[in-house]
Amino acid sequence: MTRLTDFTLAQARDALKARSISARELTQAYLDGIAALNPRINAYITVTPELALAQADASDAKLAAGQGGSLEGIPLGIKDLFCTEGVRTTAASRILGEFTPPYESTVSGNLKRDGGIFLGKLNLDEFAMGSSNATSAFGPVENPWSRANDPAKRLVPGGSSGGSAAAIAARLALGTTATDTGGSIRQPAAFCGVAGIKPTYGRCSRFGVVAFASSLDQAGPIARDVTDCALMLNSMAGFDPKDSTSVDIAVPDFAAAVARGVKGLRIGIPREFRMDGMPAEIEALWQQGIAWLKAEGASIVDISLPHTKYALPTYYIVAPAEASSNLARYDGVRFGAREKGADLVELYEKTRAAGFGAEVRRRIMIGTYVLSAGYYDAYYLKAQQVRALIKRDFDLAWEKCDAILTPATPSAAFGLDEKHDDPVAMYLNDVFTVTANLAGIPGMAVPAGLDANGLPLALQVLGKPFDEETVFAVSGAVERAAGFKATPQVMA
Amino acid sequence: MSVDTAAIRRIAKLARIHVEEEALPGLAAEFNGILQWIEQLQQVDTSGVEPMAGGGATALRWRADEVTDGAQAERVLANAPEREGEYFSVPKVVE
């Protein structure tokens, strides 16, 4: 091993503890990579080199004294949806202006407590609304991977956590925070050939995370492999009295679960995930995944999740409704950007028109519509009822299986210039991921193969509420069987 | 159900987002595309189904009704676009 950025998070942690590398040289290696590649990849909105190096020196002092937390000296990137004390937080929107939080989100605070070093704030779709990172007010993120037959074509990293996934793939961070409301951790992880887990709703605190759809939003990590994700989640997760939906239960040793194996586990294969027009490569990868788990001693069970086809339309009522309510706070009065108005209403209307991008405006208005008098029952109430049926599908499935295996996305990464004319075509990206948000269950994307053009494809593992350990066990088995070692064309 | 430009104007007003007149027809067309797509939910029989409001399975926690925070005017006002003393300032509301 010659380069510092070759270490996985687990390897770097061991090398730091053994003092064979220093936190400062590791951090500097990542900062050098960012300086060289971020102008092209645009994974970071804000880079904080001085803060990072000061943190690294503090970590080196602790490590030299034989102290330090579980992530002491590990360079991390923070999705710019997490409030970071004293560092500008944008949600990739113009409307937040120069907003600089006077407080730290619980999840990023947990990582700091454990010795993580923050390199900067990562790009995303504006307010996490998107599947391509193209709605960011700070410009799109480029996927570090490209097609073998069309290397010049710029591809999307997925979204909304496009900066988080691209930074891991291009080795511009060892671990990143991300959030997932309909697939925003798993879809970009899949597109960038890295691992990402959306934990159970309530596992990670939402305090200090800019809210999109509060009943669906959940923070989680994106990292190089399944073990690195487990180490990140072990730090990020945990009860927080500041989030009323945070659940007060013990955080198990996720990293230990990765090696557990799948012998005796029942793996459900939902027949409704076999979509019309699904590319043959995706189907083949899914069959391969089934064969891998069978070979490792799992039993394969056919299951039915009959309301799957209604999940996306349900999501596109529930999420915009919650967003229209959550984003009412951006009115130009207490923080963020302000446009002048002759009166208060004009100030609100002009600030929000200038501050929000087109997709955010569209979703706020859809949400306003489905919550408005006369339409509430037909849309919002109906969607909440279908959501209950989607959750019941999973409750019934758990009687027959311990985890579920599906493809993570319906395709590999697409071009920066594709799918932007039709909102519904863009929304279909989340067809395999969104049910987990509606049901509140954990799901993980694991890189498992390459398509004919050399782009990464991933499998998704879903688990029971608060049974991330089984999700890690199954994901670990998929990862070992797949032996995914490919790397992107652009990498530090 | 479909919406026309008058409905879009009303929704924009409710959402407190200024929309130029010439943008209304395009927004109405996008809206109708999305609404037509979510219309398929009407096929689902939901009679007697309790609507699911939250993301978690458990009921919300209770806590004691006591002050746990406060007296941080400077931090609260630190990001204000405009302020006057310890207050946010806005255009005159009452004539």
TrEMBL record, chain A:
The keyword ATP-binding applies. One of its GO terms (molecular function) is transferase activity. Residues 25-471 form the Amidase domain. Keywords: ATP-binding, Ligase, Nucleotide-binding, Protein biosynthesis, Transferase. Its EC number is 6.3.5.7. The active site is at K79 (charge relay system), S160 (charge relay system), S184 (acyl-ester intermediate). InterPro entries: Amidase (IPR000120), Amidase_CS (IPR020556), Amidase_dom (IPR023631), AS_sf (IPR036928), GatA (IPR004412). One of its GO terms (cellular component) is glutamyl-tRNA(Gln) amidotransferase complex. It catalyses: L-glutamyl-tRNA(Gln) + L-glutamine + ATP + H2O = L-glutaminyl-tRNA(Gln) + L-glutamate + ADP + phosphate + H(+). GO terms for biological process: translation. It is an enzyme of class 6 (ligase). Signal peptide: none annotated. Heterotrimer of A, B and C subunits. Belongs to the amidase family. GatA subfamily. Allows the formation of correctly charged Gln-tRNA(Gln) through the transamidation of misacylated Glu-tRNA(Gln) in organisms which lack glutaminyl-tRNA synthetase. The reaction takes place in the presence of glutamine and ATP through an activated gamma-phospho-Glu-tRNA(Gln). This is Glutamyl-tRNA(Gln) amidotransferase subunit A. It comes from Rhodovarius crocodyli.
From TrEMBL, chain B:
It is an enzyme of class 6 (ligase). It catalyses: L-aspartyl-tRNA(Asn) + L-glutamine + ATP + H2O = L-asparaginyl-tRNA(Asn) + L-glutamate + ADP + phosphate + 2 H(+); L-glutamyl-tRNA(Gln) + L-glutamine + ATP + H2O = L-glutaminyl-tRNA(Gln) + L-glutamate + ADP + phosphate + H(+). The keyword Cytoplasm does not apply. One of its GO terms (molecular function) is transferase activity. The keyword Ligase applies. Keywords: ATP-binding, Ligase, Nucleotide-binding, Protein biosynthesis, Transferase. Gene3D superfamilies: Glu-tRNAGln amidotransferase C subunit, N-terminal domain. GO terms for biological process: glutaminyl-tRNAGln biosynthesis via transamidation; regulation of translational fidelity; translation. Its EC number is 6.3.5.-. Allows the formation of correctly charged Asn-tRNA(Asn) or Gln-tRNA(Gln) through the transamidation of misacylated Asp-tRNA(Asn) or Glu-tRNA(Gln) in organisms which lack either or both of asparaginyl-tRNA or glutaminyl-tRNA synthetases. The reaction takes place in the presence of glutamine and ATP through an activated phospho-Asp-tRNA(Asn) or phospho-Glu-tRNA(Gln). NCBIfam families: gatC. Belongs to the GatC family. Heterotrimer of A, B and C subunits. This is Aspartyl/glutamyl-tRNA(Asn/Gln) amidotransferase subunit C. The gene is gatC.
